[in-house]
Amino acid sequence: MVERQMPQIVIGDRVQLRKKHPCGSDQWIVTRANGSDIGLRCGGCDRRILLPRGAFLKQLKQVIASGGDPAPKENS
Question: Are 22 and 40 a contacting pair, CB within 8 Å?
Answer without folding.
Answer: no
